[in-house]
Every structure is written in structure tokens, then in C-alpha cells.
Amino acid sequence: MAAETNESHLLIIEDDQGRKEFTLENPVYSIGRDRECNIRLVSQFVSRRHATLVRLPREQNSQSYYYRIVDGDAKGKLSSNGLMINGRKMPSHDLRNEDEIIFGPQVRAIYYLLRNTQRSGNTDASEYDITLINPGMTDDIEEL
Description:
This protein is mainly β. The chain has one helix spanning 138-143, and strands at residues 3-15, 18-24, 28-32, 39-40, 51-57, 65-71, 83-85, 88-90, 92-94, 100-104, 107-119. The protein has a single domain (3-119), classed as Tumour Suppressor Smad4 (Sandwich).
């Protein structure tokens, strides 16, 4: 039975306006305070064009991809405060599940890579691990 993996890329932002979720599907995202950014951060402590997300294919599987975050805009102009990723200041980073990105005071993001495996073909009851409990079996536990 063949298994097909579908990936979802999710970025959860917390800034001065609260929490926002972004499903990542596009090849490039601009992140920053500027109204024209794809992912807008609401805080006086972040740059207008603080970071760029770039989608890149995984080598072993052309159907699968990952995102790289890069400090600054697409033209190479760096942000004022840089990026802290998992507690370390970095100019760029290939994102992995549950990476934390700090853009400035009280402005952060968590990246999630969600993998959904779907089985193709017929399914039968042998695929499920189900234990049936007789209601009378719990009487012994309550007496302890």
C-alpha cells in the first residue's frame, strides 16, 4: 500500500496586534512593518522590510520543499535589528518544525511543518489498533 505525504507550512506571528496564522504556499514572502509586505508585523521595533521567506525544493524529492528565512529585503538590504532564530542571531536559516524567530521585542514567529500521510487503496479493520473494554472490567479498578 503506497503512502503519500502532504506537507503544510504554517507561520504563527505574535505582535502588537496579537496572534495571526499564515499558511505558506507562495515562493517568496516579504515580512515587515511596511503595508506592502506579504506578512505584516505591527510593531515600531521591526524594520519596514525585516525579512524574506524563500521556498526551496528539497534535494531528494522535488515534490517537497522547505522555507529559508533571510534577514532583510529581497534586494539584500539588512534589517536594523536582525533575526534571532532559536536564541541565536543569524543572517539566514533553513526553517525546521517549531523554529522560533524573534524580530524584535514582543514580536516573534513560530514555524510549523505539518506532515499528513494519506494511505491509498482499501482500508480494513486490521489497520486500526482498537481495544474494546467491557464496562464490567472497570468495577475492579474502582474498588482499589
